[in-house]
Amino acid sequence: MSASVDPVIVNPDSNEQAQPATRVANKNYKGFVAGIFSGIAKLSGLYFDFHPDLWSLIHRKVGHPFDTIKVRLQTTEKSQFRGPLHCLAQTIKNEGVRGLYKGATPPLCGWMVMDSVMLGSLTFYRRILRENVFSNPYFQRVTPRSGERALSAESRLPTVGHGIAGVMAGCTVSFIAAPVEHVKARLQIQYASDKSQRLYKGPIDCCSKILRSHGFHGLYHGLAATLLFRSFFFFWWGSYDIFTRVLSNQTSLSAPAVNFWAGGLSAQVFWITSYPSDVVKQRIMTDPLGGTLGDGERKFARWKDAAREILRRDGFRGFYRGFLPCFLRAFPANAVALLAFESVMRALPE
Asked: pTM for this structure?
């Protein structure tokens, strides 16, 4: 065997010093595996103790009801629901508590895959950008760098690089997220308490009926709006880098605590900037597909048509209808999701 030493590079997704290239390449799988745990935490509300050696898991089904209220407010007029509390009360009154969990199966299964692909591709794109774009001396001079104290200035990915990697990861995962979110949304707006009166009996029935009537094109209805919505990942992952840098350098918080607070705060930034595009996306995904499906007549041919209708009917305030339950859920759900992701990343073997 050759006695030569492997070339040394820095892994941009960890706080570790320079490592052999072969070891960095072997870490590519970690983001995809850790992302599965992020997806589980996001739906179920898994809360982690900040003990350095042990996690304490408390399973609390709180995530999906907030999403159901959000989607129902986004896709209805004020005459039906005056606000979040009224929507909650009417849902429980007419459909029972189980009504809050309509459409929970698609994200339960899908978010594990979605977060795995999103976070796995994110770590991959970060490395590609650092090694092939931002290693250029010009970019090193003109771009601010992220602030892991253990890394030299040349080895860090700048904040804008994290944002670009986020957009690329968002585009990648959109091709998985679009059908999952489409089916979820259609199940969430079925208001009948009696299953026999619903168009879709469940996620499998929903998929089969859409495929039978409109093919894969129908299942991917809303893909363009999904891509637009996830382009705002630039603000999520760019701000996540900023919050991580500030909390790491300016406080004495532990790494898990930094992950928790940075994850929650960056999610708030993301939803503040992206929420109008999410309202448009939900309007399109719940718009009748028409044809032999028998769900009504289509209203919006393009996402621009949905945006114009929202603006005409409710003004700019219509783009933030249902924002409160989303905002309240965003911090805890994403804080524990990013904590889970980063913690598993640290725990996985090389």
From this structure: 0.81
